Amino acid sequence: MAGLATSLGAGAASNSFDQISEADTLLIFGSNTTEGHPVISIHVNKAIRNGARIIVGDPRKIELVKWADVWLNLKPGSNIALLNGLVHVILKEGLYNKEFIEKRTEGFEELKAAVEEYTPAHVQKLTGVTPDKLLKAAKIYAEAKNAMILYGLGVTEHQSGTETAMAVANLALVCGHIGRRATGIMALRGQNNVQGASDMGPAPAAFTGYQPVTDPVVREKFEKAWGVELPSKPGLKSVEMLDEAQKGNFKGLFILGEDPAHTDPDISHIRKALSSIEFLVVQDIFHTETTRFAHVVLPGASFAEKDGTFTNGERRVQRIRKAVEPVSGKAEWEVICEIASRMGYKMKYNHPSEVMDEIASLAPIYGGINYVRLENGSLQWPCPTKDHPGTATLYKDMFSRPGGRARFMALEQKGSAEVPDAEYPFVLITGRRREHYNNGSMTRRSRGIMEMFPEELLELSPADALKLGIKNGEMVKVASRRGEIKVKVRVLDRSQEGNVFLAFHHQDVLTNILTSPHRDPITGTPEYKSCAVKIEKL
Amino acid sequence: MATKQAGKLIKVVINQKPVDCEEGKTILEVCREAGIFIPTLCYDPRLEAYGGCRLCLVEVKGVNRPLSSCTTPIQDGMEITTESENLTGLRKTMLSLILSNHPNDCLRCEKTGDCSLQELAFMYDVAPDGYKGERWNLPVKDNNPFISFDPNKCILCGRCVNICKNLMLKGAIDMTGRGFNARPDTAFGKPLSPENCLFCGQCVSTCPTGALMEKPSARTGRNLSVKKVKTTCSYCGTGCSFFLNVKQGKVTKVTSDYDSPVNRGNLCIKGRFGYEFIHHPDRIKTPLIKEANGEFREASWDEALDLIAKRFGELKEKYGPGAVGAFSSSRCTNEENFLVSKWVRAVLGSNNVDNCARV
Q1: Among A538, A531, A537, which residue's Cα sits nearest to residue A265?
Q2: Residue A178 burial by CB count (10 A; 0-12/13-18/19+): exposed, middle or buried?
Q3: Is B1 among the domain residues?
Q4: 3-state SS, one letter per residue, for B218-267
Q5: How many domains does one find in chain A?
Q6: Is there a contact between B330 and A194 if contact means CB atoms under 8 Å apart?
Q7: Across the interface, which of B198, B333, B358 has its CB nearest the CB of A237?
Q8: φ, ψ dihedrals at B74, nearest 5°
């Protein structure tokens, strides 16, 4: 999200999901939309039925490849090379939007210089994608009337994830494919309220509404509202808190509804960090890999047991409503208030609607949002005032950067931090499956889902299966430099030769024991999408 | 289904009243937007119109036969009649024919109170025994955990086939057989399985009768006896809206919210069938405090919250605000995320607060 924010101004999708069906061209990049976002993929399906041209950029032969005009079957970790290559071709072939670039962007000359060396031949070397495919994709995308890019965690979960998001923005900007209906960039958010959690500013460097903690004017506003002096120094990112914990410098942690001992990479490190914490509180609805490290476990309330709001991946704020009583008698918002109050700071709200009123008073992008309005429907931020209808399409007139122009970023291809070698010859890509969700604590407790989709299977290409002498359904050991797991094999042609795939939903196949500790230096996002492993028959 | 660009404004007359509307829409769409009721069974706004049920027939001045409003584009100056003696007669006949091969056991049917066929039979006062026809008497197919199909209640509207093939691009089911023996089924009549089906339940969501039903919620309460609470799905970032069906303090089912701008009634397997965790016995029900032996014991809220307040206060005192912090959650509400950040900044006195967006 930091990538899009740097290039365009806001770390969020530029359009609404329903506009996807109106696009005549879709570039789906690092998103297995059909499985990761099944209902968004219905909009993609509609576009397909309407005759839209489809470009898929993904190392896996995902379901959407079936409908694609071009499949850019790149090697894992070569995203920037491919995107730079597309821009290179668009510039060379004169397919760029000169007027848009002149009027609405800055930094074009730097971009031009940076992509110069990404010739189709060079890109083939870096990505494995043949020049004919690159040329075809560049032409289809550039010549579209209404093109949208859908990208997922295949973009961000690399050590160069932030830069890859910028490379995506570069591509849209050279063609002027942003700032109109059915034309833009959709960053697909993984979890129900990722957008909202980012907006609300439980973030080390930003208050609610992306307002920097280092800005004295902003800080004064919050200090006045909350009646206390606030720290001006940015705090630690989650991954850094755990690093410091392992070093013995971080002592007390409250984890709300998160399971890092299952879903963070390099679990062995996480386990050590969590056991080094002097006082750990975990609030969750089920016992997880993480609760076992806690000194106090608090029961959480499920989404059916409380009032509140979620903000979806198109910046839409929607109500959740209490349908049944919380199992434990309390919802999380009440618990946080009680802890604060018991520490001598009075925090009292009669209803989450009062919290939203406070959010609206402090964060301009949520300024016009309240529960009375949300009762009649949802609102997409920015929604600065009570009579503002909300914003479906961003950047219609200007970008939300200083000066109003979008910024081209000159970027260089950097590979994955860990690449296959003689000892660990395979690239492990991780991701989601349609039927399960994250640590699986919810989906694994739905009987039908477990009956039909009971276990995790390692996706292995037929060629690799043959080479290793492994048959469908056989158990194997998968090991990385960090650890090993045992898992059953599914031989199918979805992964390309040399790549294997695992999801991370099952507690008996803790995929993140294998994943790499390398991170994007800007956001701290781990490189879940690529690490080196070996596979042995059992 | 196809998305239409805003068309030219035109004027038509519906039931003698002038109506302004957009070119490019169908008569049915214009009527529905104007609040004029036209009965349908095979129509679902999510799908391309099929025009099979013939209930949406209307009269258009200058045309000497009734037209199906779901497939006829509106035209400037059209004069449309949606209710007349002739139309009512045609609709009654259609409904009567459908009911001639229908079990008509609304007393025991799960769909009662939410069934389009039942509603229209009532509205047009059609008796179930107008035509005494042959009946299928086929077995119910439900050898999968999610979806049951009672072919005897199928009215061959084609919506399930249409939604599976044209919206989901899956084609798990299609019309099989001919004439009286035509009915939707899987290839070779195989049971629904991960091999041929996504288990999104979209077919169930579009079925106008009790033919396709959710299996996990069978016999937990019919439409009229449940409270429906509109809410937002808690799985992925799409933010689909749906209704939690609640009876006696329990969530019994998830049903579609067809008006949601996000998902228009569409849902996936997790949204539609992944709700059983809510009342799962594994739920943590009380605060738990770890004893010296490493075992958790149950504690009261007061004891746990006092301990948390005390320990965080002590750690802040001893090591400074930089040594304490919190992870907030993308799974929790905006309000909760806001409050966690407020607690860390205003009470713990550091900016060590983060959410799981980055991991």
Answers
A1: A531
A2: buried
A3: no
A4: CCCCCHHHCEEEEEECCCCCCCCEEEEEEECCEEEEEEECCCCCCCCCCC
A5: 3
A6: yes
A7: B358
A8: -70, 145
Q: What is the DSSP string of A467-489?
A: HHT--TT-EEEEE-SS-EEEEEE
Residue A301's pLDDT is what? Answer: 97
Q: How many CA atoms lie within 13 A of B160 on its CB side?
A: 30
Containing A126, the helix (H) or strand (E) segment is: helix A120-127
**B43-80 CB burial, b ≥16 within 10 A, e <16:** bbebbebbbbbbbbbbbbeeeeebbbbbbbebeeebeb
Omega of the bond leading into B208 within 30 degrees of 0 (cis): no
The partner residue sitting opposite A313, judged by closest CB among B168, B239, B323, is B239
Distance CA A324, CA A480 (A): 45
Cβ atoms B75, B60 nearer than 8 A: no
Q: How far apart are CA A244 and CA A266, in angstroms?
A: 16
Which chain B residue shows the shortest CA-CA distance from A296?
B289
State how far the Cα of B222 lies from the Cα of B247, in Å rounded to an integer: 10
Taking the C-alpha atoms of residue A497 and residue A474, their distance in angstroms, rounded to an integer, is 18
Number of separate domains in chain B: 4
Of A285, A233, A278, whose CA–CA distance to A259 is shortest?
A285
Q: Are B47 and B1 in contact (CB under 8 A)?
A: yes
* Strand, helix or coil for residue A309: strand
Question: How does A413-432 read in b/e, with b if 16+ C-beta sit within 10 Å?
Answer: bbbbbbebeeebebbbbbbb
Contact, A256 vs A294, CB < 8 A?
A: no
Geometric angle at alpha carbon A151, from A146 and A157, rounded to 5°: 160
SS3 assignment, position B142: coil
Q: Cβ–Cβ contacts within 10 Å for residue A475, how many?
A: 12
Residue A124 has pLDDT above 70, yes or no: yes
**pLDDT tens sequence across A277-332:** 999 999 999 999 999 999 999 999 999 999 999 999 999 999 999 999 999 999 99
Each residue of A249-267: pLDDT tens digit? Answer: 999 999 999 999 999 999 9
Tell me the pLDDT tens digit for each residue of B189-223: 999 999 899 999 999 999 999 999 999 999 999 99
Token pair, residue B145, equals: 């955990």
Range of the domain at B155: 131-279
pLDDT tens for residues B241-293? 999 999 999 999 999 999 999 999 999 999 999 999 999 999 999 999 999 99
Helix intervals (H) in A345-485: 352-362, 371-375, 447-452, 462-468
Query: In the structure encoding, which two tokens stand for residue B264, read together?
Result: 């228009």
Domain-ending residue, one of A146, A172, A188:
A188
pLDDT digit string (tens) for A156-206?
999 999 999 999 999 999 999 999 999 999 999 889 999 999 999 899 999
The answer to whether the CB atoms of B330 and A197 lie below 8 A apart is: yes
Q: How far apart are CA B67 and CA B51, in angstroms?
A: 10
Query: Would you say residue B179 lies in a domain?
Result: yes
Say which amino acid occupies B165.
Answer: K
Token pair listed for A130 = 């043949």
Q: How far apart are the CA of A83 and the nearest CA of chain B, in angstroms?
A: 22
Last residue of a domain, one of A148, A164, A188: A188
Contacts of B195 in chain A (CB under 8 A): none
How far does the CA of residue A122 sit from the closest CA of chain B (Å)?
32
Mutation target to probe the B interface, by most B beta carbons within 10 A, among A21, A31, A42 is A42
User: Are B71 and B148 members of one domain?
Assistant: no
**CA distance linking residue A125 with residue B343, whole number of Å:** 51
Mean pLDDT of A95-106: 97
**B326 lies in some domain:** yes
> Would you state the pLDDT for residue B3?
44
Cβ(A12)–Cβ(A173) under 8 Å?
no
What interface predicted TM-score (ipTM) does this complex get?
0.95
